[in-house]
Structure formats: structure tokens, C-alpha cells
């Protein structure tokens, strides 16, 4: 944070003295006005529900320019990372700040690979869940439970333990998601296989059974890897802010990441990919392409709560750059699997075209986001819809843990404690029962 020579002056119409507020410059992006001393100086708070104008921290990990539709991980454009790097290189970059050289990549990959198995007792913990439990419910429990299974890496004040828990989380998430899936499907868990890539190993743990050999399809392997890269981090979104807030109390990383998983589940955030596919199924059931017009009318009706899932973003007021890349992958996968004529995928492509040409969406700058296409790709690959958000959680884990570690090493970090504008009853006295009502 570089202090600017500019200052902001806040004046009051009630005659109270004005206050001067420092301004800081980031390396790119808007300046920020430092209001930390505002309450001490004026007795007033700021009011910003939804954090529309509030930077909650400083961070050097991910930069988004929503108007331009730009996303940078540690300065590198997502378009270059998606084409030139794999997911584990991306993880290294996000965690440690630089892209690995060949030796660093090999060492990091080996380290992750050696941590992919989970404690054998975890399968018995999993057995406590109903077979039909939603994978995100299961995953929230499993990730939180990691603090019970790996108590030797929960001291957040020890950088070595923090690093081990980061590696454990990145390595074990695919195993846990696959276990949640297999439990639900009633199939035996597949142990990780270390000779496979991160994505191929995950596919095998999901789709293989002990009865047959499993050969990963390279197009699908690359598509999954790209989904992971595109979801790896996204600066201070709801789940990342949840992780930071949770960890700001000093709790252990597994507990904080479990909070992130829980937050991600919501349909306005990571749950959008599942909600998007459910929406497509519903339109399909109501008549498919022919009923898109009626559906769009519902979306535009202020009295209905229907939204076009997979469209719109708090920060991107231009095409989500991840969506462009995911769209490309989507077509690659549909081609490779011969699914271009599948009615659901045709419906999605028609819906996208109609929405992009509709004034309602144009005026509000609502473009497809990454989840519109990632859901379609996952569906094409054969991943059950209920597992989509768990895959998002798997990929975002590196971002969460990197942001958590960044916060803990920031000398300015404090426990998160927002204030409020109180609108309830002022002080009053409890009346005896006979006088109430
Ligand atoms: N369908 C229809 N109208 C929409 C949509 C949508 N998907 N998104 C926003 N709007 C309208 C909204 O009704 C409002 O209209 P008006 O100005 O007439 O009241 C205007 O656009 C602004 O919307 P907002 O709700 O104030 O915007 P926000 O920044 O608070 O919400 C959002 C962002 C992502 C929650 C919202 O666009 C949305 O609900 N989208 C659908 C869910 C979705 O796809 N979420 C995934 C986000 S990307 C993955 C991730 O990072 O988690």
C-alpha cells in the first residue's frame, strides 16, 4: 500500500469539524480511502452492506478489472495461464507468488501427490451421513473434520504447519469429493493413483471401479484441469471473505476452509453452476427452446424472483474472462463427445444467444459468467449435477488457503468485526406478564 499525496476531506452539514482521510494507491486499480480512524475521530461508522465500496484488506494475489473483463493471478492474465500452465503450476503461483521452474514444479507435484490419500478413519466418519446427503453438506463436514484427523498442522502461528495444511488441503480435496460421490453412488472408494495427473487422478477416483481398468480421456482431463484453473482464486468474493473472517479469530485452517465451503454452496455464488443446470432442466421440461421466451419474460418480471442463473456478476460488468475460456472448453468437450446435438446443450446455446441480444441484459451489463459454461461442461463429462459446486470448492481451495495465509502474515490484520446501524427497539423495561400484550 503506497500512501498518496492526495487526501479525502469529509465534511458534515451539522457543523461538526471536517476530517481529513488518507488515500492509498494499489499497484493497479482504484485508490482506497482509509477510514480506520473515522469512528475514533467522528463517532460515526460508514454504512456499506454487501461491501459495494469497501476494500476489506490489501492483497497481492488476484486482480480483477470488472469493467475491462480482466483477471490476473499474481499479475499473469488468466488467458495465458489457462493456455500455458496446468492447475498445479497455478496453485504454486497463487500460493507462493511466482510460477515454478521445472524443478520447483516437479518437487511441488511430488509433494501434493504424496498427500492425496486421506486418513483411513475418514471413511468411517463419512458413513455417518445419509447416502442421499448433498455432497456440499458432506464436504463441509469432511473438511471441518480434517482438523480432527490432522491435528499436527493446525497451529496457524507456525508457518511450517500452515504450509503443510495448505498442501494437505489441495492434495486431499479431490479424494474427499470423490469419496462423497462414491458414498452417494454406493460404490467402493478408489484410492488415489500417484502416476496420474491431478485431474486424471480425480477422474479415476470418481469414475473408475475396482472391476475395470480406467483410461482417462485426455480432452476431458484437460477440460477438468481448465475448470480448476479458472476457479482457483477470485479475490475477495463471498467465500474467500468468509474464510478470512473465520480465520481472523485465530481458528485453524481446516475450520476456516470448511466455512468457505459452506458459503460457496449458495446459489448466488458457487451453487450457481448447479442452479444453472437445474434451470435448464426446468426449461427443457416446459417445452425446451420454444419456452425460452416465456422464461425470459419471467426473469424480467420485477414481481418474480426468477433469475437467469449463470448470468451476471458483482464485479464483471463486461464478459467474464473465465466464461470466454470455459465457453471454448465447452465446445471442445461437446465436439469430442459428439454432444453438440444434445437437446440440453442446444437449449443452453440458444438461451445464451437470446439473453445476449436482449435489452434487459444489455442495459444491466449482464453477461454469462463462468458457471454458465462450467455446469454444461461438467454435465457433458458425466459429473452429477449435485457435485458441481463441490468441484468449484475443490478448485477454490488453493485461493482460500493462499488468502488465509496472506492475511495471517499481514502485520495490519485484526479480527474481523463489522459494526451496524441499529434500527431495533431502544432501551425499554421488561413488564410483568400480566401487563404485557
Ligand atoms: N438474472 C436476471 N436479472 C439479474 C441477474 C440475473 N442473473 N443478475 C442481476 N440481475 C439484475 C437485478 O435484478 C438488478 O436489476 P434492477 O437494477 O432492475 O433491480 C440488476 O441486474 C443488478 O443486480 P444485483 O442483484 O444488484 O447485482 P449484484 O452484483 O448484487 O449480484 C449476482 C450479482 C451474481 C449475485 C447476480 O448477478 C446473480 O444473482 N446472478 C445469478 C447467479 C449466478 O450466476 N451467480 C454466479 C456468480 S459467478 C461465480 C462466482 O464467482 O460465484
Could you explain the architecture of this structure?
With 437 residues, the protein is mainly α. It has 18 helices and six strands. It has helices spanning 38-42, 78-84, 87-96, 102-113, 122-126, 135-149, 159-185, 198-207, 218-230, 238-247, 253-264, 272-285, 292-300, 321-336, 343-357, 359-363, 370-381, 388-408; strands spanning 2-10, 19-25, 32-33, 62-65, 70-73, 76-77. The strands form two sheets. A three-stranded antiparallel beta sheet has the order 1-2-3. Strands 4-5-6 form a three-stranded antiparallel beta sheet. Strand 5 (70-73) and strand 6 (76-77) form a beta hairpin. It is globular. Carboxymethyl coenzyme *A binds at residues 234, 237, 268-270, 272, 299, 307-314, 364, 366, 369-371. Residues 234, 237, 268-270, 272, 299, 307-314, 364, 366, 369-371 line the site of carboxymethyl coenzyme *A.
What is the element layout, followed by pairings?
Layout (H helix, E strand, L loop, with lengths): L1 E9 L8 E7 L6 E2 L4 H5 L19 E4 L4 E4 L2 E2 H7 L2 H10 L5 H12 L8 H5 L8 H15 L9 H27 L12 H10 L10 H13 L7 H10 L5 H12 L7 H14 L6 H9 L20 H16 L6 H15 L1 H5 L6 H12 L6 H21 L29
Antiparallel strand pairs: 1-2, 2-3, 4-5, 5-6
Helix pairs in contact: 3-18, 6-7, 6-11, 7-8, 7-18, 8-9, 9-14, 9-17, 9-18, 10-11, 10-18, 11-18, 12-15, 12-17, 14-17
Bound molecules: carboxymethyl coenzyme *A.
The site of carboxymethyl coenzyme *A (CMC) has 20 residues, from helix 17.
- Encode the helix/strand succession as letters: EEEHEEEHHHHHHHHHHHHHHHHH
Strand order of the largest sheet: 1-2-3
Outline, from the CA principal axes?
A: globular
Low-confidence stretches: none
Q: Radius of gyration over alpha carbons?
A: 24 Å
Mean pLDDT: 95
Main beta-sheet strand count, sense and barrel state: 3 strands, antiparallel
From the N-terminal CA to the C-terminal CA, the straight-line distance is 56 Å
Strand content: 5-15%
Report helical residue fraction.
40-55%
Give a count of the beta strands, DSSP E runs of length 2 or more: 6
Q: What is the subunit organization of this protein?
A: single chain
Name the ligand types.
carboxymethyl coenzyme *A
Structural class: mainly alpha
Helix count from the secondary structure assignment: 18
